[in-house]
Design a protein that fits this description.
The chain has 343 residues and is of the alpha/beta class. The chain is built from eleven helices and twelve strands. A hairpin with a 2-residue loop joins strand 6 and strand 7. The two termini are 20 Å apart. It binds nicotinamide-adenine-dinucleotide.
Length: 343
């Protein structure tokens, strides 16, 4: 068999549990025969410590060259300090669609039929970063204002991505989620664009629209009726944590940030400071993020094999990490997945 040409991918281990779960993922990909050259780069607190800069130019230059990155979670100080590096990376590389799948693997009798993909508009909305305080009297922070910006262009490319994703992945329905009843301008524009695009796909992909609060309730009551969901930035962020919870927690759900010129793959979860350094983090989410990367570069077959080994290991529940009810370390779980791969 001829060996495939090595793919170059920027690897950002990240903060907290990041280095251990990305190491585990690199080990799994190697065991699965993926020929990847990793260009290791820093970002987040690790980069502040090493270079005094949370997002060094060398890291940006690497992603610009490879156009692909696998990223561990990055720490963002709450309320003050530097702005989120994740948000900065999405802006820098114009990663307009955030694809977050949540699928039931560990059955618990409550949510056994979940197979939902959330496509979140990733560059605008309330996360666009237009924020300021207004001073009143002696109080410099008497009023805080954050603006949500929706553009026809931004809404259109994210929503179109969701419909195209549905078509190419054999999905049946796209639900457009919004709050246009209250936010008539910004959310109204998103819904308006969504309905127009839905019409273009009539007969090929079913569609519906739902108000975000009703959607949140229905996701918990009857998650099996959802397929692909497309929504604005903040709603997508919140709902994708909700769908992670439906399928067993944050340790299991990955996210792909897709742009025209680059794509960054990661876990939905953060740096898990409460368990960092203990060797017990669940690496599944980043591993599944790496599978999304393989899908993205046309190595879907290898991705399916890896997913199969992960799912079998999880279903067996013998060697799984604490967050999903086991006692295995990150390393023991990774060994078990690799053993499955070779079985
Ligand atoms: P978190 O996702 O780090 O942790 C929430 C809970 O889930 C914790 O109890 C944690 O132990 C658990 N958890 C998360 N991932 C796990 C895993 N792989 N295995 C086992 N348990 C896991 O959320 P947080 O505590 O709100 O955030 C911590 C830091 O992470 C913050 O600085 C935040 O800004 C950052 N963050 C980064 C990203 C990212 O880089 N994409 C995403 C979310 C949060």
């Amino acid at each position: 068999m001829t060996k495939a040409k090595a793919l170059e991918v920027t690897l950002i281990p990240g903060d907290g549990i990041g280095p251990s779960i990305t190491d585990a993922t690199v080990r799994l990909l190697e065991a699965a025969g993926a020929t990847i050259t990793w260009d290791r780069q820093l970002a987040g607190m690790a980069a502040v410590t090493a270079h005094g800069d949370p997002i060094p130019d060398t890291t940006l230059a690497s992603i610009r060259r490879t156009r692909l990155a696998l990223k561990g979670p990055l720490e963002t100080p709450v309320g003050e300090g530097f702005r989120s590096i994740n948000v900065a990376l999405r802006k820098e590389f114009d990663l307009y669609a955030n694809v977050r799948p949540a699928k039931s693997v560990l059955t618990n009798g409550r949510f056994d039929n979940v197979d939902i993909v959330i496509v979140r508009e990733n560059t605008e909305g309330l996360y666009i970063g237009i924020e300021h305080y207004v001073k009143v009297g002696d109080d410099p922070r008497a009023v805080a204002q954050s603006s949500a910006v929706i553009t026809r262009f931004g809404a259109e490319r994210a929503i179109r991505y969701a419909f195209e994703y549905a078509l190419t992945n054999g999905r049946k329905k796209v639900t457009i989620v919004h709050k246009a009843n209250i936010l008539k301008y910004s959310q109204g524009l998103f819904l308006d664009v969504g309905r127009k695009i839905a019409k273009e796909y009539e007969g090929r992909v079913q569609s519906e629209d739902k108000i975000v609060d009703a959607c949140a309730m229905e996701l918990v009551m009857r998650p099996e009726r959802f397929d692909v969901i497309v929504t604005t930035n903040l709603f997508g962020d919140i709902l994708s944590d909700l769908t992670s919870g439906l399928v067993g927690g944050l340790g299991l759900t990955p996210g792909a940030n897709i742009g025209k010129d680059a794509a960054i793959f990661e876990a939905v979860h953060g740096t898990a400071p409460d368990i960092a350094g203990k060797g017990i983090a669940n690496p599944t989410a980043v591993m599944l993020g790496a599978c999304q990367l393989l899908d993205h570069v046309g190595e879907g077959k290898r991705a399916t094999t890896i997913r199969g080994a992960i799912e079998a290991t999880l279903r067996e529940r013998k060697t799984v990490t604490g967050d999903v009810g086991g006692t295995a370390t990150t390393e023991q779980y990774t060994d078990a997945v690799i053993a499955r791969l070779k079985a």
